[in-house]
Predict the structure.
Amino acid sequence: MIPLFKVYMDDSVETEVPKTLLSGMITQSTKVEEFEKELKIVMDHPYILTLNSATSGLTLGLRLLDLSPGDEVLCTPMTCFATTASVLANNLSIKWVDVDPSTCNMDLDDLKNKITSKTKAILCVHWGGSPIDIDRLKHIACDIPIVEDCAHAWGSRYKNRHVGTTGNIGVFSFQAIKHLTTGDGGLISLPTKELYDRAKKLRWYGIDRDERSKGDFRLEKSITEWGYKFHMNDIDATIGLCNLDGSLENVKRHMDNASFYTKELSDIKGVECVKKIPNSESSFWIFSIKIKGKNGFIKWMKSKDVMVSQVHKRNDLNKCTEQFSDTTLVNTSRLEKELVCIPCGWWVSDNDRCRIVYLIREWCDMYLQLKIKKLTPDRLHEYVDLLSHFNTADYLDCKNSIVYDEIWCAVLNNKIVASSKLLIEDKIFRRVGHIEDVIVHPDYRGMGFGKQIVTHAINESQRLNCYKAVLTCAYRLSDFYTSCGMENKELGFEIRFPIQKRKREE
Ligand SMILES: *Cc1c(COP(=O)(O)O)cnc(C)c1O
């Protein structure tokens, strides 16, 4: 199995971590100091603070902006839920900004349209590590403060500076599967000394720990501003110190795999790589593609032992963000239909990446050549075999009752993988399309073919001037038909009789 994520742990933890564990100082102390010193060098930025997670960092970052409850933050919906949780944790309200489907980052044109006098902050992400256009973002924002979620972007650069150090608040994650891990952990980078000093206190209840040693060493002066317990501890910092150099080496391999994919996938029809902007370097924590038949692709890759995933679900459709719902995020909806990330990390070998490209090519060729056509007599046996997968007995002797004109088959590699019957009924005033006998061959389920055959029947009904297309189905299929664009409408009534063997009137 080629995994999509893998925890990187340098061998040196085996000797270094026990030392810290037995040192008598395991919470924030000298190891944290040492780790921060190293991080400042790597990031070429003096105002950084380690924390226990990026979620804490985002929460702290927004807190530093001194907003009032209910103030409006412009947010990208395509991110880890941590981003959104930090806004909710600060009692702020969310206005969603659509995404740019070519980068998966916040769409700056939409951002521009959505800024009003109510906008108090902007919260963006560098999707997959690919920097958002920071100069343009800052230009559009004017003096509205920006918090950058850089959780994917350890090692990413924008105009030759480390992402997150270009004048905004930046937050990084050192969670298990991120480029650089401390087990769990995070980092906040601040644009000014003032914010740095304040954040340093707020990560530890609001206490200035350097001031504590005078008098009774356990007691602190009056706390001016309450803070959190968001600091990193020495155990995690030790892990971070061990992993730091390796993480930077690993980023290079992520980048190399990504440029391989960008080149090799460019001429395959049916797939498109998510792009990065000029003047930037992405650390490619994940490599995102847009592919036809995404859900089928995910399942198919799994059957070939390659893990792929969309990684983050859009945040705006959660129950807890219902009150901020925005139905106009067209590109987000469109993107989610095709977005999937493929393995591109340091563990992906030359062989692995060639195989992944090969599989993508195979999928696209297969998917794009799927043909939906009417049943012809030469395929009758195959069609009847397919129907035998319905677990109701009354399909067994159906050959004579088939009307070729009503049966649509999805044919892949000269094999019927799905079919449906579409019966057009002329009522007294209007026409109705009845979709019946939808079936997907068991070897091809969950790959999107059922959806294609149903969508075809729906489109065909419309083309033939029906005013609606209808079907009845088992309750468990209701999500499937909803995903095809149908709606559960009105009530169906029926009365069932004992099954009789069908007698044909010749
Ligand atoms: C991982 C991640 C986070 C959360 O990081 P933690 O350190 O686990 O809190 C936040 N935002 C994004 C985009 C992430 O990928």
